[in-house]
Design a protein that fits this description.
alpha/beta; globular; 6-stranded parallel beta sheet; 9 helices; single chain; 17 strands; Rossmann fold; Quinone Oxidoreductase, Chain A, domain 1; 2 domains
Length: 331
């Protein structure tokens, strides 16, 4: 049995359509017929070589929605015909200090979908059954795909931002993650201040439509001090700006897996117990909590679909900010 897949054969070179054998699931794996796969900025970081040592050749994609078509002999709790999502975290050792401490996102031996494991820019993929999530029935395939990374990483970032008292939350970079998170934050009673690229008035209008209380360019200061800020834009120079925007004791959360270098800045911008922290990957607990919220409140995702064979065009559209919301490949 064969499948089509868009394959990264060399970092920085366009993906190539290949016809490959459908993978066989190992005893602990499920074989999934991919229905949709979100296109994430992390895919660009892998494609551009900003994340080192990817598996090559590689099938990108870690926001995977599909139907289980075969289960390995050791799999329990999942069945053929069930719809599941496959996220970035694909495998951990379960034995290192981090895994034992409930920080499997920091596992010394973790493997990641669409980076060190083949992902979802293909008609079929396999995944460790312990790391997939049953998905809420209320969401269509394309609509639910962005929840599997933009939603999950956004939610983990939000968990840390909530450690700051107060209801004023800044979000720098209003793309796939932000347009999901703003809906949860507003439901929780927070006022969201959205920062886009300077001059991106379309993006600012979109942020307000999604519930932001204020929207402006990332070169602007908010009209009042923030209690916390989350950076989804992978731009290091935004860290000092966000520190200047948060109050004493405020928290700045860097939500991306890759960011350009943070420039030096005066210590007084960090002083008065302001905090800068990063977010690395996700845990299965994050996924369970987030999808429970997604069942309780319907999260609206704005998506632009592309056919699988146009994966290169989809990546370029993401790079240039051509669309608001999220981009999803339909397989």
């Amino acid at each position: 049995m064969r499948m089509r897949a868009m394959v990264l054969e060399e970092v920085g070179k366009p993906l190539v359509m290949r016809e490959l054998p459908v993978p066989e699931p190992a005893p602990h794996q499920v074989l999934v017929r991919v229905r949709a796969c979100g296109v994430c900025r992390t895919d660009l970081h892998v494609f551009d070589g900003e994340l080192p040592n990817p598996k090559l050749p590689l099938i990108l994609g870690h926001e995977i929605v599909g139907e289980i078509v075969a289960v390995g002999a050791a799999v329990s709790g999942l069945r053929e015909g069930q719809r599941v999502g496959i996220p970035w975290l694909g495998e951990t050792c379960g034995a290192c200090l981090y895994c034992k401490a409930g920080q499997e996102n920091l596992c010394d031996h973790a493997r990641f979908t669409g980076y060190t494991l083949d992902g979802g820019y293909a008609e079929y993929t396999v995944a460790d059954a312990r790391y997939v999530f049953p998905l809420p029935d209320a969401y269509e395939d394309v609509a639910v795909a962005p929840l599997l990374c933009a939603g999950l990483i956004g939610y983990r970032s939000y968990r840390f931002a909530r450690e700051a008292w107060g209801n004023r939350l800044g979000i720098y970079g209003f793309g796939a993650a932000a347009h999901i998170l703003v809906q949860i934050a507003v439901r929780d009673g927070r006022r969201v201040f959205a920062f886009t690229r300077p001059g991106d008035y379309t993006g600012q209008d979109f942020a307000r439509q999604m519930g932001a209380w204020w929207a402006g360019g990332s070169d602007q200061m908010p009209p009042e001090p923030l209690d916390a800020a989350i950076l989804f834009a992978p731009v290091g120079e935004l860290v000092p700006r966000a520190l200047q925007a948060v109050r004493k004791g405020g928290i700045v959360v860097c939500g991306g897996i890759h960011m350009s270098d943070i420039p030096s800045f005066p210590y007084r911008w960090l002083w008065e117990e302001r905090v800068v922290r990063s977010v690395a990957n996700l845990t299965r607990r994050d996924g369970e909590e987030f999808f429970e919220r997604a069942r309780q409140i319907h999260i609206e995702t704005h998506t632009t679909p592309y056919p699988l064979e146009q994966a290169n065009e989809a990546l370029e559209a993401l790079r240039t900010g051509k669309h608001t919301g999220a981009i999803v490949l339909v397989c």
